[in-house]
Amino acid sequence: MEFCPNCGKLLRPKEEKKEVFLACNSCGYRTEGEAAEEGYVATEEAPKEKIEGVAVNEGAPNLPTTTAQCEKCHTDKAYYWLEQTRAADEAPTRFLQCVKCGHKWREYS
Ligand SMILES: [Zn+2]
Ligand SMILES: [Zn+2]
């Protein structure tokens, strides 16, 4: 709320000739008008999109599993993936990661 600097009364919002301003009913004081045409511009706040899809869980990589024994905890199930580590004309190396303790190793063929 704003008050009249002259008489201290509450200023009332008024609109006149496409201008809005605050005016005092007692002494006639008024603030400078602001263009009313633009009006209230609603700020569009787009709802934040929820990231859908696979939740990244580092403890459980989205990889296929195979039967392989971990040398650390002796779990016989491990994730596996292939990586081309050597020359492109050679077979890719298969890497394994224990599903239980996360130990990684490469499979030597
Ligand atoms: Zn006044
Ligand atoms: Zn293990």
TrEMBL record:
The keyword rRNA processing does not apply. This is Transcription factor S. PROSITE patterns: ZF_TFIIS_2 (PS51133). Gene3D superfamilies: 2.20.25.10. It comes from Candidatus Naiadarchaeum limnaeum. Zn(2+) 1 binds at C4, C7, C24, C27. A zinc finger (C4-type) spans 4-27. Keywords: Metal-binding, Transcription, Transcription regulation, Zinc, Zinc-finger. The lineage of its organism: Archaea, Candidatus Undinarchaeota, Candidatus Undinarchaeia, Candidatus Naiadarchaeales, Candidatus Naiadarchaeaceae.
